[in-house]
UniProtKB/TrEMBL annotation:
Domain FAD-binding FR-type per the UniProt entry, residue ranges: 1-107
InterPro entries: FAD-bd_FR_type, FNR_nucleotide-bd, Riboflavin_synthase-like_b-brl
Name of the featured protein: FAD-binding FR-type domain-containing protein
GO molecular function: oxidoreductase activity
Domain of life: Bacteria
Length: 234
């Protein structure tokens, strides 16, 4: 397993609670849209065993041509040891990334694509939308639906409807409106539904989609293949 140590080159305050850490791209480090990585803080591998409290599974919110690896995360006032350390890091500090993999690349199957996310889960979809804007081949259209009760919606400069590019974006701040809209979207019985958020959020969305007749193979989750049956088999 290769561990890449790299430096923070910029910290962007997206909202009062959400920051994006832009990291230098190590030589030979590559990724594709929908990728996640293991993001670790200094000292995580100092002992005999890795210190798991200093490691998090994070989505990469940028594409390679942006020349930085973006890690977007919510840091609340009351937070874990990991987030407390992360909050105090500065430009020039070192972090580690390893085990990078994509579970949710953009499928190009001449279908409509629906991106369903909660809060900062939208960071996973940012590269998919940018990839689609650059090359729309074999994607009919994309619709993004995000729920964020904070009302501090993310990446609004990218997640805004562009009719010419067949891209629509919706933000809602409550569950009632969100799940009503999911039901509306699920009237497309041939669409592809990507879902990113907490495990509870995934299960609730899957339940609503399945009730509307959407098949498991139409639902894309940011989970490893061996984990999918836990979510999609009921």
């Amino acid at each position: 397993m290769q561990i890449y140590w790299t430096k923070i080159n910029k910290i962007i305050e997206e909202t009062p609670e959400v920051k994006t850490y832009l990291l230098d791209c190590p030589k030979d480090f590559t990724w594709e849209e929908g990728s996640h990585t293991h993001f670790a803080l200094e000292g995580f591998n100092a002992g005999d065993k890795p210190n798991r409290s200093l490691i998090r599974h994070m989505s990469i919110s940028t594409l390679p041509h942006e020349k930085s690896i973006g890690i977007t995360t919510r840091i609340r006032e009351q937070c874990s040891e990991f987030k407390t350390i992360l909050r105090n890091l500065k430009v020039g500090d070192e972090v580690a990334i390893f085990k990078t993999h994509s579970n949710v690349p953009l499928k190009r199957e001449d279908k409509n694509v629906y991106l369903l996310s909660s809060g900062v889960g939208l960071a996973t979809f940012r590269p998919l939308v940018l990839d689609y804007f650059e090359r729309a081949d074999h994607v009919n259209q994309i619709h993004s639906l995000n729920i964020d009760s904070s009302k501090d919606f993310l990446f609004t400069n990218i997640f805004e409807s562009v009719p010419d590019k067949k891209f629509t974006s919706q933000f809602v701040d409550n569950r009632t409106d969100y799940y009503e809209e999911v039901k509306n979207l699920a009237t497309d019985k041939d669409g592809l539904f990507y879902v990113v958020g907490s495990d509870e959020f995934l299960l609730q969305n899957i339940e609503v989609l399945r009730e509307q007749g959407i098949k498991p193979e139409q639902i894309m989750l940011d989970k490893r293949e061996q984990q999918l049956p836990e979510f999609l088999s009921f």
